Structure prediction request, 329 residues.
Amino acid sequence: MELRACLIGFGKVGRSFASLLIKNKKILEKINVEFKVVCIYTRKYRLFNDKGIELDKAIFSLDNLGERFDDINDIMATKNIDFLMDFSVSSFTNGEPGYSLIKCALNNGINVITVSKAPLALHFRELIELAKKRNKILRYQGTVMSGTPAVNLKEILPSLVVDKIRGILNGTTNFILTKMEEGFTFEDALFEAKKLGYAEEDPSIDIKGIDSAAKLVILANTYFDENYSLENVKISGIESISKGQVDEATKNKSRIKLIASVEKDNLIVQPKMLKDDDIFFNIIGINNCVEFDTQYGRILLSGPGAGALNTAYGAFSDLILSIKQIFNR
Prediction:
């Protein structure tokens, strides 16, 4: 069975996803699926190849790998696309371009897998309901904790009732705070995070707590079946945390962590001083951790929360689950 996909965005995450497709080709072959990427859409390139774009070449350069096109909406409407893989960087003001692209895909009968947080943080219920209306798949594991199944956990625990969610949901800020404990200044820790690929050139979304808030909204809506948006979250970031505050916390056998939590309509992201008996005390570096308070007790998930490959794996795992769902395999 041939499945055709369009990739939106082909930066570090998009290229990492392409690498995973190449390396894991046998997994798809085992379930009798030929997965072709026929379209790649970026700011610079708008590329279509009906026979499939050669991903081993695309990872290095998109030149001369297909035909140029003007309108991505026309491609989705006329080229028999089965999956939209959304790796776009979308605005936290309006969710664009991901918001419109996801809607266009669903309205054209195309399944969607996205790692873009902004469209879901701002328009979660609308997009989920549209997917249901069109009887299409919308998966988004890669939006929260990358490949660690914070979102997809719900599928294997269908009767779970969650009362509270608390977590460290941003790898960049956790890395910076860890480095500050090691003696780095805030500025030097941020520079190190950029050098290692854990922070963007403009890291304000992470530093100001917006990224954590977006992930909190997505988790809260997923597990509480609500319609929260970013405007419902009280947000404080780590931009005002000084080296002196970190040193004082260390002296008192404590650590400062950026904690996201939701309970009874109270969604909060803020730095908190944690004692060494707190379960998040030993979550260091780029690692994330989320705790679910449920009727069966507390469930804890921990794993890497930053890095292109980890995020790409979240999308790849969603793809495999989607294919199994479509073909009942």
